[in-house]
Amino acid sequence: MNYKIKMPPAVYGGTDSVQILREILKKEHAKDVILFTDPGVKASGVVDSVVEIVKRQGTRFRIVDHLVPEPSAEDVQAILDEISEINCDLILAVGGGSTMDAAKLISILKGSKFCVRDLLNDSSSPQKRIKTIMIPTTCGTGSEATCNAIVAKPEEKLKVGIVSDEMIADYIILDPAMISGLPKKIVASSGIDALAHCVECYTSNKANPFSDVFALAGAKLIFKNIEKAYANPTDTVAKNNMLTGAFYGGVAITSSGTTAVHALSYPLGGTYHIAHGVSNAILFAPVMECNLPACADRLADLCDAIEPSFSNQTQQEKALHVVHRIREIVSFTEIPPSLKSFGVPKSDLDFLTDAASKVTRLLNNNRKKLTLEEIRSIYQQVL
Q1: Mean pLDDT over residues 362-367, rounded?
Q2: What CATH number does domain 10-179 carry, 3.40.50.1970, 3.30.870.10, 3.30.980.10, 3.40.50.920?
Q3: Sign of CA dihedral 121, 142, 104, 37
Q4: What is the pTM of this model?
Q5: What is the tens place of the pLDDT at every residue in 201-229?
Q6: DSSP string, 183-237
């Protein structure tokens, strides 16, 4: 098997690393910047330090802060149309996965002959037209590192991943100050999303020596820090480790890929608008439990990394412990264990099963070839 990994050219991390933005703007001779964020991030004040740096550098800028969470293809297209006549030689994204995904799409579409819908059918043609800087404000999506952008297709009640190496960011800044005031529920949902990235990439059919390094390191950081980051908002060490672990998970995705957890999650986001990290969290343990016969060896490796005290246990015991830890983390972070509170009716079971079975891009990565009955059974457990 041949494999590759795509790495952003420059990644900065640590306390006050956001200050490197001044040097980046200078290096790129940036005269006009579009800054993408969202209303929540803007209201929290974390974007203020970024705006101040841009101002001090004398760079003209336009803030776009009204993209909806979990956007559809049309939502992103509306933003693209809105800024089509605005001068821009650098794109800056300060936010979570939706913000960064939209910024990445716009970086390859602005001024091109393509629209967002074109990329749903074929994302191989567009090339990057504007360089990007990603500054994540959650400790989870990994979008800053990936070549993916997720949009909803309302007509199919599904989310779809657009994949292109051209969307790899040019600069990434991982500053723990950007997530210092992150609400606990976002620490939980984004953190478990990041953990799913690492575990899925490590157990994927596409797992390889490149992706394994990042997936294993990311999983270790997140398993050991997510509960600390959730319980103690002032634990900057835990928050920084989560930020790094999420980035590692994003890098792993570029070389490996997520599997059935994300595949079964997509219809839940596309139909019921359940937050991506929450739907992943609810499905995470049931999917991995179903996958055990095909990936117990890989889960046992993860156990060795996170629980050295289990070294004398059998492979099956180690694998089961990882699934148990996932359940523990979901419970500790107070994410509902089922879909009942989200108004998902049991009568939609057939629709969910059919919709998930069509997410072949991710299901093909799953080591265990899931039957329709197995997909149905997983949903039944959480309905």
Answers
A1: 98
A2: 3.40.50.1970
A3: positive
A4: 0.95
A5: 999 999 999 999 999 999 999 999 999 99
A6: -HHHHHHHHHHHHHHHHHHHHBTT--HHHHHHHHHHHHHHHHHHHHHHH-TT-HH
